[in-house]
Amino acid sequence: MDLTLPQAANFLKLISKHLPDMLWAKDLEGRYLYANDAICNKLLMANPEEVVGQKDVFFAQREREKHPQNKQWHTFGELCFNSDYVVIEQMKPMIFEEYGNIKGKLVYLEVHKAPLHDENGKLIGTIGSGRDITAQVLLEKKNEELAYYDQLTNLPNRQKIILDINEKAPTACVIFNIDEFKVINDFFGVESGDKILQDISKWFLSLDLKPYRIDGDEFAILYYENISVENIKHNIEHLLALFEEELFHIEDETIHIQFSAGIAKVKDKLLTKADIAINYAREQKIKVSIYEENANIEQKYKQNLAIATSIREALLDDRIICHYQPIMDVQTGEINKYETLVRMVDKDNQIIPPLDFLKIAKKTKLYSHITKEVIHQSCNTFKNRKESFSVNLSIDDIQDATTVQEIIHTIINTNTASRIVFEILESEGIENYDEVANFITQVKALGAKIAIDDFGTGYSNFEHILKLNVDFIKIDGSLIKSIHTNKRHRIIVEIIVDFARKTNSKTIAEYVIDETIFSIIKEIGVDFSQGFYTGKPDLLK
């Protein structure tokens, strides 16, 4: 049954007076025919008797007059409710969100509107309902902020850049990596590092860029213009130059920070290829790297992934094996020591040397598994033998509590603690002095010995050797292999041998490849010889 205008208003009044949702009816000029208590009290700040015959703008202006100091005090009615009432013959129902300021607060409403017709089907006004969904919208905004924005810098994060790339189709992406950011954290502390990240974020914003923070020390920007990659590179080089002029402050200290940048201008996998470009820039220690489809950079990473998979499979299939290289007593000619050298056997039963897989193993967290396997195999190989044997350890092994625990457990159970020698790479481990010293104390208490590997390179520090109380100094092969032709190298070796003798350490010469070199190290007084002249690495029977 069609209702007349008064009938419709009375009907709405009967069913909606005390509902929590806002309900109203208006004529085509936007004047209220009816408004229930909810809209009167929550939105219009008026009595129901005042509302009929008035427009939204009346109540908005009245509220503003009460608060002249705040022009935005009440904008709901004027901006949202009154603006869209236009005489349209075929007006259809609508559902949408509206918002504005009420009492100085941002309010969101879910509004439903529909045409109001008389008994003849003529459009005579509108009816509507509104529900306050402010709490719901603010919760959704908060969840979006947590999901898509970095909490430290308030910049959009990696998830947001992925979303924007998928939805907005940018033409290029540039990733910036802070050079040596770990050093800043280690030297000044994490809190100072966080402040630097915030300052860098502000610097990007000050240049009217729209940065993302996509990783701990990485920022990114997107290009939407169709400009050449050469122009992008020019822009980025200019940006890096500006950045390097910036001074950042940590308390009273002033520090300079530099970026590396990776650029990708491709149609697919934009962020992935920008990642590849920045990784390449870091590896090659260059300022700006451009991803090029024909540069085979992506192929290199695929090969690395394939090698990582091969390492994992080899660990599962017991194809990580140990070869042992003899170490000869120079004076007696006896072989009573061996160095454990790891090898990987591929599915075709071919031996893969360590240079081809250990570096990748370290990058993929597989290195500790290899170390544990080497410790297990070597200790079980020598538990029934009389010779001593050495195993190489990296600083990553020493810093890994589970690896250290496994080492100690294994050497005790196999009764090899008194014959094992742990070789620590001098250029890698000594700079982490406290951790290395703590490890040495633990294993020496069990009877193990310590060798410093590759001693004599540019990192050598005699003071550290004294503090760590090492048992063996392995002289770097780069000095030994040219000792017969390079007088400087011979002098360095003589100094190391003299130093070792005075500190009750033994010396081992690596890379002894022929009789000439062997004769020279014997003449100098090196204690032990290791190299192809003495014996090649192989399985032990």
UniProtKB/TrEMBL annotation:
- Domain EAL positions: 304-541
- Check the record and name the Gene3D superfamilies matching this protein: 3.30.70.270, EAL domain, PAS domain
Citing just one GO molecular function, the answer is: cyclic-guanylate-specific phosphodiesterase activity
Identify the CDD domains for this entry. EAL, GGDEF, PAS
Which InterPro entries is this protein grouped with? Answer: Cyclic-di-GMP_PDE-like (IPR050706), EAL_dom (IPR001633), EAL_sf (IPR035919), GGDEF_dom (IPR000160), Nucleotide_cyclase (IPR029787), PAS (IPR000014), PAS-assoc_C (IPR000700), PAS-like_dom_sf (IPR035965)
Q: Where is the PAC domain?
A: 89-145
Start and end residues of each GGDEF domain: 169-303
**Which stretch is the leader sequence?**
none
Q: What is this protein called?
A: PAS sensor-containing diguanylate cyclase/phosphodiesterase
In its UniProt entry, the species of origin is given as Arcobacter venerupis
Give the classification, highest ranks. Bacteria, Pseudomonadati, Campylobacterota, Epsilonproteobacteria, Campylobacterales
